[in-house]
């Protein structure tokens, strides 16, 4: 059965938390161990052929937490601690970050990932997204270009100065009145490239919205992009380094991360097109030899891991071929290498010509 | 049966008297008297049990060692009669006599003048200090008394006693007679269930005296009597042509009181565990087979660590002189009965003897309770709060936080304990052999101190 994903308001979530608590109390009063069944989701499997039945939005199995194993009891303990915090946040309609939660019981949580897992477990149990719990992360993403929107009454008029950088709002659900004169959305992997484009007044020359997640994109950035694409129906291009990590970032925009697999429906961008940099760009744009770096062992491991994911062959075989080529060649290069010919090469030649000629995968 | 020491002969005479008392379907009295007759002490063990005890003495074997021969001349004077006898037989056994036919000398009988009674008196003279003998008898009686705890008397000493047997220890000295009178008016039949019950009562009393007080329980440690946790287990084997039927009963007691730093409250064996073993209602050394059974128990399942049998922390076994035989049935029965007793104790005392794993899980109970209580108490939904309080059996949502937390914690611990017990079977031990059981009682009483 497909997982229901409802956009709960906080009162509905509070009701669910009470029901969960009541069931735990009923169990222990009846002399039984409480049982929490937590669906497990996966973005992909390791079937290289892609002939698997992976579905992003269906649970692959259930994990059951009972009072019989120390590891499970610890997980239950931490989950309930976070649930208590969430109940208080929702009752008072306040927000906090994952980090704030961590610092409420640092000795118990020991590390941030424990809190992250507990939050994910709660989202799965309550069939909601993280922001529904009033747990937000500090936005890392940046945006500029032909765009105007408001967030909780605050106006973001990027159109007025399209090369001015704005932080992507944290409360994406509060974003409204989106208006754009752009022809496309360009996602760039790195802030340095984003700033290069801003510096080159890229958006003055091109009707574009440019976004960067500054590395692996966080949830607000991906949700914001999801919202933009869903509202504006613009083509989305992505520019990443020509290395295994760049391609992994591209794939994360496209399919979502494994950690947030349960919520990928709201985070992935199936429409995204890979604009570059391709391994073949090194010849096509005659990159100097010194810009080509040998793949490290880590790079190779990462490439092989991404190649093994089932969706690569099934849904983006061209991407997979390029990644295989990258691995076979054993060299990588950064986007900045394209600036070797000219500092404005990227914004004046490379990007416009690629978009115009439709050179993307 | 070999007699190697003064202790052996006294123990033997007293346990024989017990046996005769047990065989009597009536109230019975057993007296042990000591009378100094310088340079020796005249000791008499008398009982009103069934008489006719010739067989018992014919099996005795006097070990002619230097120590014993300096203390006892090997003579036993016996007066005995059964209820059907018309006279009291007077016999004299000379255990040092090598010619078997000369060992028993019949002396003139005494008429009963038509009276109907039964009883036996065995006397002997020992060249020992009377104080030493009294101490020895106290220790022996104290173990026997474990088989049944009973009435307090206003006499000088109070001993718990076997269910239908009254015992007195009489010590005559120059200043008069001290009578340590032990009395019991109960006449419950000695079924296995009653044995176990008696053993439990006896062991409880033993523990409440820290195992070293003859007179009364330690009131500072056991004023409420609620500091003890008890578990019992019974395993049977049935009689067949190869084996006589046996019953092994185990009673385990855990004392939860903290060991006070007062000499009056200290146990002879400190924090170590004492194991008291009885064979056929007589205190005795633990046989090798039962020792092996103790070693083979997976103590970790009960959150215990057996460092060694005989010494060190964890478990100390008293009287661990190895027995001459190692019997597979003994080992099986001890192990089974002990496991049943441990499981029984766990079942009856929530949170006790939890396995190592369950203890680790229980460590989360306070935090879990605190969080669940927080989820209830901090909710703004009053109906929800009322519902939860009702489930928890608490009176109203105005209950104090600590009360709610403790209530939830106890329930969580209870669930963990139930799961822990459920992991291992607590079924009755299956009978090893065919046919009906014989009433051979073996009992083990263990006393843990978990302070």
Automatic annotation (TrEMBL), chain A:
Spo11/DNA topoisomerase VI subunit A N-terminal domain location: 74-135
Topoisomerase 6 subunit A/Spo11 TOPRIM domain location: 184-355
Record keyword Isomerase present: yes
PROSITE patterns: TOPO_IIB (PS52041)
Localization per Swiss-Prot or TrEMBL: Nucleus
Keyword Membrane listed: no
Active site positions, chain numbering: 103 (o-(5'-phospho-dna)-tyrosine intermediate)
Catalytic activity entry: ATP-dependent breakage, passage and rejoining of double-stranded DNA
Family from the record: Belongs to the TOP6A family.
Entry protein name: DNA topoisomerase (ATP-hydrolyzing)
TrEMBL record, chain B:
Name of protein: Type 2 DNA topoisomerase 6 subunit B-like isoform X1
Organism: Salvia divinorum (Maria pastora)
